[in-house]
Amino acid sequence: MNLNMDNNPSVLKIKARYLTHPIISHPSVVFSCLWGLSLTLVSLKLVDAFSNHIDAAFILFCLVVISNVIGAITAAIVCSNINFPVKKKPISFLNVRKIFYIWLIVSVIEIFTANGLPIVWLLTGDSRTYADFGLPTLHGFANAMWLFLSFAQFVKVIDEKFRPQELLILLLLIFWPILVVSRALFTIWILQISFYLLISSPKKLRNIFLPNVALIIVFLYFFGIAGDLRSSFSITSSLGFDQEYVTLTAFLWAYAYIVSPLMNLALAWTTIQPSYHYFPENMLSELMPNVVKNILGFDRTFEGFAVLTHDAFNAITAFGGAYYDWGPFGVSLMAFLIGLVGHFIWRGARNSANLPLLAAYCACTALTIFTNQFTQLVPIVYMLMLAKLTTCKSYLVMRK
Known about the structure:
The chain crosses the membrane at residues 23-44, 56-79, 100-121, 133-155, 167-196, 208-229, 250-272, 326-346, 353-371, 377-396. Keywords: Membrane, Transmembrane, Transmembrane helix. The chain is mainly α. It has one domain. It is built from 16 helices and 3 strands. The protein has helices at 27-43, 54-79, 96-114, 118-124, 138-159, 164-179, 183-200, 202-207, 209-230, 235-238, 246-271, 281-284, 290-296, 320-350, 356-366, 377-389, and strands at residues 12-13, 91-93, 390-392. A 3-stranded antiparallel beta sheet has the order 1-2-3. Helix 1 packs across helix 11, helix 7 (183-200) packs across helix 15 (356-366) and helix 9 (209-230) crosses helix 11. The longest helix has 31 residues, at 320-350.
């Protein structure tokens, strides 16, 4: 690998950002806050459909948060005997241009193979959906490359002087999830850059706090409208409200998406008997490419999806698979491991300018209330790319 930064066009030269507020960036803090938010919304009992099994939800909250914190404390004890290297150097993303070319070629091949794009199918009324797009297995690696490219390009745009061509490349990358109708890709990207800005530029975020609040309100407004347009039912009437208000609809959609996964898991906790398989099939099946899963005959559909607090919301937290495989022990073990690994990543980032991996891990941690990113191939490959291809080099110009 050529590390000559002056002559290597495949390297993004960006300025260093350091961990200025370590506590708020700790994955266990992020984990506890998001799970606490969901439990708080549940305890308000705003909707009857999500008001049952609150006791089970509280037990789940205590189990996962305590296990996660214990994992972090265990890692902290181990870290006390480790001297982490101090790398006060700017970060660099290696081989970005090469990865971009590979991703572009793969994406073009997928478009020709699928005879179109999901956004076109959606607008023309085609029966195919985003799930029909992409070559099995290869599509996951392409998504991991997109996450790496879009984040690296974003960091370059905010750290360097404004260059229209760089901004254009970033906009083209951001436009890709819209073309393939992938909310998951866009959500992970938004969360990661949010955490990156939070832990590296807290002063800037404080200066734009009120505009951000206004932006969130606007986002919720359109989020609610989009939810109504995509669905064949009215969320207000389905959740027991007599009249439909646009603002109420917006907040109801956000409320339902935050609360329903926890309540679905709480319902499964009280009604579904874990399988206690020797191999945790439900928890680890998504680590395998679809080709391998088909050969082994794994079915990633949880039994608990047949038991829902509300028929319109079938999402479950990151610990659904762990519960169906190994019961409360599986839930506790997974939360412990998330806290353990998270502290190691956080501790290493404190002495380094390499914050992208920490931001990605925090984003996946935040999503545990909705889904499991830690046993999915795409986020794991992406974080491995960050760990391998993001480095600190002394021959970059230091941040002034």
